[in-house]
């Protein structure tokens, strides 16, 4: 802490409102000091006694990257609890640990970058683990609960300041910094904006982080939506923090601007207040801001606006009132309460997908064979903290059933790698002192990965067995007998030095490539092959070693050996969070890796009483026809194994519910970059196929009946109530879900849409009445003809049940609204992006700062349809604002082409140089307008005149 100035300065006077104090401090800062505040690492201003400040502390499911902390289930697992109060408590625990850790280490920041509220639209998205749900209502409910916990409940001072990630329409890692999400207005308002809006309106959010991608051709970091939407949802000063490196991407990879000064100025004017770029080196950003100011691209008031928003967060965090900050001395860290909460969260996240033979729960005297690649693993992901405690499924089953009743086989292939010289790849013995341990003796993977103080692999006449796991698509890991993974550090040496695969670039994955009479071993992280010399193994450009792969024991044989004599087999399968699906890498398929499929088949063949427990960051498409029982949980943090064992034993009746649709096959999925959930019928809202398991699905060890559905409509809400009774013989939670559906809509509407839910705990025979107030605005849709929300009058179904497909009660209500009307095209024309239907078209930026246009997605051809256009007494001409090369063909009701408007771009033309073209056309009455776009033309607007 720097020396404090006398308390007479107004910004130190806590009797004044924050706004006046911020104005006073802002007035005392020089221009250079204010510019310096715009970088992620804002320096101290010692002459005013102002400390340095860092935006950004990862806290997605516990405090991340700062050492040991309580690790809760992944975000998708928290979403699977459908329990907002539990998630609020998790957020509260995380924020307390953030404060406690900051008391020991001032590198820990209080501006936390979480939660992620991107919707889980596509299950192949690599960061599926970071979101809560595919549904905007459930996502916003869980996100609001988490932010409230992070914020704390003090009326003035916040415990931490949460920033929502990632604004906006971000669901692909493939080329994420250069791809554009084409988001039509209805999808924008009804889907992508909605989760952010309801969370921001709840009042516990400090700001947002724009995503790397572009939306409608414009980078999120210069999005007008920050001004047009985000900042209209609250009176609070929201802080917008850039994602890491994204400011430079505007020039370096996206080529959206010619200079970094232009890009930085455009970002700041769009609403970005803190620039995360070049790590702790602020010199490049400050030079860019200064250059933009000196050339007139920015004014000092522009800079003041951004600094004011940052200071607003700092004042709310109590930085300038340390003696009055109620959170300043929070020391709650790794408390018994936090450990119990981590276990409860893991237990509540478990989803029982199938239990057809009543195999579960397991009797206390059951003999269990537990097998699988994740059976003795407690996996961490990129945004995990370092484990203080850990519990694997095997350890949980040992603890619950007794080690004498549990047998284990990991199911890995045990192999030897024989060199062309006849020797075997070998792990030299390490000194006992080489082992690095973290808190309470836990191995610290951040310290172990890529270590260079261990001896590199060499050759030995006897050889060493390695555990080989193929994670799918030919990506494999190799593990030494001491449990460490083969890894490659900066020096290129191959060592058994990593506790788990990890790192921004994973250094523990390899490929076996057939070569001559053996295999080359390629290291994926460097792209180089493994070579072997007298001084050990390394990756190199030349002289790759040809290995003979010798299988000592297959994983299937190991599984068969322990499963045949068990009463029940528990196969624990799933993913490693750093392989095939993570930040920077989308998943290739829904299928379970073939290695794990083989283990599952071997277990089922040996013992039909096989339970599959999937522990994964995302859904899988699994053939469960021959399986009597199937469960899923996300990577559940430090208590995952204990939680799973207690559910299998029946100590806890499972009540997790799927937060996203589980599809049966890859063919059910649209292209990863197709963001039109309406047009391509994505998520449970629109999907018309048969899912493997539907949104909201989850079974229980109890049974529940629903009854007494009643509704009552007021001026602004629909009151719905019904009763739920536990008709089973064990206490259990039920997640009652309420959906609505427009019965006879004039535009495509969701098949059903979640509007409320409640997780309740009931004893056997207990009955409770649940009541919900559903705002009538929940029935609205975005009317592209009006550019506004509208509720159609007519019948709506109200559906209550246990999932989106398990509807137990239904009734119909008649609601008032505004009837549809033809588009007044003579007065308003047609904005190109306000189509009703499209094929082969992408939305792009009309200008760099605002507006939308459309263009053929592949630069070839596309079609737009605008329904019910009213030409009134008749028109004689059509005009179109066009840029680029190509043509627009105009027809009515799908008939013959009536007019063609052509655009020809000059050699130096900008895509934003629009020209207005005119053609004669005769039309009257109410007609559907069809526009076919030919070639790389941009269409911004179409008008009609008499």
TrEMBL record:
Q: What sequence ranges are listed for the domain Cellulose binding type IV?
A: 823-946
Q: Which SUPFAM superfamilies match?
A: (Trans)glycosidases, Actin-crosslinking proteins, Beta-D-glucan exohydrolase, C-terminal domain, Galactose-binding domain-like
Note the Gene3D superfamilies from the entry: 2.60.120.380, Galactose-binding domain-like, Glycoside hydrolase family 3 C-terminal domain, Glycoside hydrolase, family 3, N-terminal domain, Immunoglobulins
Q: Name one GO biological process term.
A: arabinan catabolic process
The answer, when asked if Hydrolase is one of the entry's keywords, is: yes
Domain Fibronectin type III-like, which positions?
A: 734-804
Coiled-coil features, chain-numbered ranges: none
Q: Which UniProt keywords apply?
A: Hydrolase, Signal
* Gene Ontology molecular function: any one: xylan 1,4-beta-xylosidase activity
Is Ion transport among the key words of this record? no
Biological role stated in the UniProt entry: Catalyzes the hydrolysis of a non-reducing terminal alpha-L-arabinopyranosidic linkage in ginsenoside Rb2 (alpha-L-arabinopyranosyl-(1->6)-alpha-D-glucopyranosyl) to release alpha-D-glucopyranosyl (Rd). It is not able to hydrolyze alpha-L-arabinofuranosyl-(1->6)-alpha-D-glucopyranosyl (Rc).
Q: Which family does it belong to?
A: Belongs to the glycosyl hydrolase 3 family.
Name of this protein: Exo-alpha-(1->6)-L-arabinopyranosidase
Q: Which organism is it from?
A: Streptomyces caeruleatus
């Amino acid at each position: 802490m720097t020396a404090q100035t006398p308390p007479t300065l107004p910004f130190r006077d806590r009797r004044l409102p924050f706004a006046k104090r911020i104005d006073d401090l802002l007035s005392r800062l020089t221009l250079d000091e204010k510019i310096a505040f715009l970088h992620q690492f804002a320096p101290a201003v010692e002459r005013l006694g102002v400390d340095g400040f860092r935006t950004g502390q990862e806290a997605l499911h516990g405090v991340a990257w700062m050492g040991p902390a309580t690790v809760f289930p992944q975000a998708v697992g928290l979403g699977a609890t459908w329990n907002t109060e539990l998630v609020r408590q998790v957020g509260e625990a995380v924020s307390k640990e953030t404060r406690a850790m900051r008391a020991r280490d001032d590198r820990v920041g209080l501006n936390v970058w979480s939660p992620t509220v991107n919707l889980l639209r596509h299950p192949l998205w690599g960061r599926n683990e970071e979101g809560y749900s595919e549904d905007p209502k459930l996502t916003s409910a869980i996100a609001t609960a988490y932010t409230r916990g992070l914020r704390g409940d003090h009326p003035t001072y916040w415990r931490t300041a949460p920033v929502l990630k990632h604004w906006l329409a971000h669901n692909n890692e493939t080329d994420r910094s250069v791809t554009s999400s084409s988001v039509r207005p209805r999808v924008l308002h009804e889907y992508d904006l909605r989760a952010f809006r309801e969370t921001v309106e709840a009042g516990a959010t400090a700001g947002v982080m724009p995503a790397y991608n572009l939306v409608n051709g414009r980078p999120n970091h210069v999005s007008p939506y920050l001004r047009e939407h985000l900042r209209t949802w609250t009176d609070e000063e929201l802080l917008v923090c850039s994602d890491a490196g994204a400011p430079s991407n505007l020039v370096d990879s996206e080529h959206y601007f010619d200079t970094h000064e232009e890009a930085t100025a455009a970002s700041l004017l769009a609403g970005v207040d803190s620039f995360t770029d070049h790590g702790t080196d602020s010199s490049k950003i400050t030079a860019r801001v200064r250059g933009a100011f000196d050339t007139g691209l920015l004014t000092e008031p522009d800079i003041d606006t951004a600094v004011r928003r940052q200071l607003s967060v700092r004042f709310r965090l109590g930085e300038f009132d340390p003696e009055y900050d109620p959170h300043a001395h929070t020391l709650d860290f790794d408390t018994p309460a936090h450990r119990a909460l981590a276990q409860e969260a893991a237990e509540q996240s478990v989803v029982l997908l199938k239990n057809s033979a009543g195999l579960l729960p397991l009797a206390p005297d059951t003999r269990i064979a537990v097998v699988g690649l994740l059976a003795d693993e407690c996996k961490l992901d990129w945004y995990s903290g370092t484990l203080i405690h850990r519990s694997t499924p095997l350890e949980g089953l040992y603890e619950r059933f007794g080690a004498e009743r549990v047998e284990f086989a990991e199911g890995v292939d045990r192999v030897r790698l024989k060199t062309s010289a006849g020797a075997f790849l070998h792990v030299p013995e390490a000194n006992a002192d080489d082992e690095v341990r973290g808190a309470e003796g836990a191995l610290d993977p951040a310290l172990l990965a890529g270590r260079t103080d261990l001896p590199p692999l060499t050759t030995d006449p006897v050889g060493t067995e390695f555990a080989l796991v193929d994670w799918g698509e030919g990506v494999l890991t190799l593990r030494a007998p001491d449990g460490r993974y083969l890894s490659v550090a900066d020096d290129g040496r191959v060592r058994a030095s990593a506790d788990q695969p990890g790192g921004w670039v994973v250094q523990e994955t390899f490929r076996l490539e057939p070569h001559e009479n053996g295999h080359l071993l390629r290291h994926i992280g460097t792209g180089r092959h493994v070579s072997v010399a007298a001084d050990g193994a390394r990756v190199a450009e030349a002289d790759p070693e040809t290995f003979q792969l010798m299988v000592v024991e297959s994983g299937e044989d190991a599984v068969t050996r322990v499963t045949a004599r068990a009463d029940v087999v528990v196969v624990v399968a799933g993913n490693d969070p750093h392989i095939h699906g993570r930040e920077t890498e989308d998943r290739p398929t829904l299928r379970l890796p073939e290695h794990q499929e083989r283990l599952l088949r071997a277990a089922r063949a040996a013992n039909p009483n096989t339970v599959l427990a999937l522990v994964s960051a995302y859904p899988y498409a699994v053939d469960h026809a021959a399986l009597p029982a199937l469960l899923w949980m996300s990577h559940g943090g430090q208590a995952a194994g204990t939680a799973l064992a207690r559910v299998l034993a029946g100590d806890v009746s499972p009540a997790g519910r799927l937060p996203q649709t589980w599809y049966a096959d890859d063919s059910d999925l649209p292209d990863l970059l197709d963001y039109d959930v309406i047009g391509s019928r994505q998520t449970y809202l629109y999907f018309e196929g048969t899912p493997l398991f539907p949104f909201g699905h989850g079974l229980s060890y109890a049974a529940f009946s629903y009854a007494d559905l009643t509704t009552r409509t007021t001026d602004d809400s629909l009151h719905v109530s019904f009763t739920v009774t536990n008709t089973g013989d064990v206490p259990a939670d039920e997640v009652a879900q309420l959906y609505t559906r427009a019965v006879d809509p004039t535009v495509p509407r969701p098949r059903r849409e979640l509007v409320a839910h409640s997780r309740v705990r009931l004893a056997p025979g207990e009955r409770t009445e649940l009541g919900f107030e559903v705002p009538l605005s929940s029935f609205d849709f975005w009317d592209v003809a009006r550019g506004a929300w509208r509720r159609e009058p007519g019948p709506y179904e109200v559906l209550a049940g246990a999932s989106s497909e398990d509807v137990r009660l239904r009734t119909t209500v008649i609601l008032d609204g505004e009837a549809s009307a033809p588009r007044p095209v003579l007065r308003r024309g047609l904005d190109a992006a306000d189509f009703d239907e499209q094929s082969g078209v992408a939305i792009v930026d009309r200008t760099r700062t605002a507006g939308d246009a459309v263009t053929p997605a592949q630069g070839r051809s596309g079609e737009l349809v605008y329904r019910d256009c009213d030409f009134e007494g008749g028109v004689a001409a059509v005009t179109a604002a066009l840029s680029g090369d190509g043509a627009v063909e105009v027809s009515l009701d799908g008939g013959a082409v009536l007019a063609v408007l052509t655009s020809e771009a000059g050699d130096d033309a900008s895509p934003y140089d629009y020209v207005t073209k005119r053609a004669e056309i005769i039309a009257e009455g109410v007609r559907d307008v069809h526009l076919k776009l030919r070639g790389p033309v941009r269409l911004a607007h179409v008008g009609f005149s008499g």
